[in-house]
Write a structure and sequence with these properties.
Layout (H helix, E strand, L loop, with lengths): L9 H6 L4 E5 L5 E4 L1 H7 L3 H4 L10 H18 L1 E10 L5 E12 L5 E10 L1 H57 L5 H32 L14 H14 L5 E6 L8 H18 L6 E8 L2 E8 L6 H4 L21 H11 L3 E6 L4 E8 L7
Helix pairs in contact: 5-6, 6-10, 7-8, 8-10
């Protein structure tokens, strides 16, 4: 014979439940409380009866009761998960989460307010830790932002202050180049001129980075007052002169005029060609194409060599990112970033496509003025 399951002692269930039970009269006085909440508060259960609910609430709990719990109870008859701080007999606070419901008679008269309270020490600690963690994260983000602005301001000042001594060195080297020099002297002057040119290009890149980051983008002055073709031809000639051992092929078929900043387009082309010289296979010609198709101006630079890995391609246009290069070709990693900023400043795009056959960077923009476009 199976024995009958034991019956639950409802009185004991109420008195020793793992939560606090409190019943309030319509005027907010305690008419019944279980032993659990009495033990939390260090009061005898009978001593709680007759007290106002405010007597067992901390200051924050009193405000929450009057401004949130009580109004919601009057409107909807129940409230869930309201944070209330209870106050022990010795003044210590106990964080709790309260659910409340009103007991009404058949005519709708308010008889009691029933509160069920759960200790929330661990939960409130966790919530506070989340708030503190968020505050720390925001403070760290602000500190990083300020450091980034300071770093870019430093770059701008540094670049500006270095340009003057570089200009003086360049002028001195040019004067030396006009003197009667030995073969070794001419070689030294030529190498010095090359070093000054590279240093000037690095400074220009630093200034462009600072302008782009601090000024909201690179400044451009677009017009169609002069042809673009001679500018691109000059860029190709300069690159060939800098690295005469590399083969640079050019196809330029531009229908003028092109509404652009010709200096910036020259800078973009120079950066793309320099990138091809650095990363392209030495035995494969570098090809530059500058053409117009309808209303679009398109400039592309391609080179041979190993394809760019996907993870590298995703970061190519980030400042200070450098792929694997020969030690003699190391730079700041700003060339492609600045080229992409020039493209954006012209309302255009700069894309890259890389396969085993070739790597090609393509700049495309509308060659018409904005109002015509």
């Amino acid at each position: 014979m199976s024995s009958a399951p034991p019956s639950e002692d409802l009185e004991d269930l109420y008195e020793t439940a793992p939560c606090g039970y409190v019943s309030l009269s319509p005027d907010g006085r305690i008419v019944k409380a279980n032993r659990t909440i009495a033990a939390w508060l260090a009061w005898a259960p009978d001593d709680l009866v007759g007290k106002r609910v405010h007597d067992i609430l901390g200051f924050g709990g009193q405000i929450a009761f009057e401004t949130h719990l009580a109004p919601l109870l009057r409107m909807q008859g129940h409230v869930h998960e309201i944070a209330l701080d209870l106050l022990k007999a010795d003044g210590e606070k106990i964080p709790t989460i309260a659910n409340a419901a009103e007991k009404r008679d058949a005519e709708g008269r308010h008889l009691f307010t029933r509160l069920t309270l759960f200790k929330a020490v661990d939960r409130r600690t966790y919530e506070r830790s989340l708030v503190e963690a968020r505050a720390r994260a925001e403070a760290e983000a602000e500190a990083q932002r300020e450091a980034a602005v300071l770093r870019e301001q430093f770059l701008a000042v540094l670049g500006h202050d270095i340009r003057n001594p570089l200009a003086a060195l360049d002028a001195g080297v040019r004067l030396l180049g006009k003197e009667a020099l030995s073969d070794s002297g001419r070689t030294i002057v030529r190498e010095m001129a090359g070093s000054i040119e590279r240093a000037s290009a690095l400074v220009d890149n630093l200034l462009d980075l600072a302008r782009g980051r601090l000024g909201g983008g690179l400044p451009v002055g677009r017009d169609a007052d002069a042809p673009l073709t001679p500018v691109i031809e000059q860029v190709v000639a300069e690159v060939r002169r800098i690295d005469p051992d590399r083969q640079v092929e050019a196809r330029i078929a531009v229908e003028e005029p092109v509404y652009c900043d010709r200096g910036r387009i020259a800078q973009l082309a120079t950066n793309l060609l320099s990138n091809a010289l650095t990363h392209g296979a030495a035995d494969v010609p570098i090809r530059l194409e500058a053409v117009t198709e309808g209303s679009d101006f398109i400039l592309s630079v391609s080179n041979g060599g190993a394809p760019i890995p996907d993870d590298v391609r995703e970061r190519l246009f980030q400042p200070f990112f450098r792929g694997a290069t020969r030690a003699s070709r190391n730079g700041l990693g700003l060339g492609l970033y600045i080229a992409s900023e020039i493209a954006k400043a012209h309302g255009g795009t700069l894309d890259v496509r890389s396969t085993a056959e070739e790597t090609r960077f393509t700049f495309r923009m509308d060659k018409r003025p904005p109002d015509a476009a």
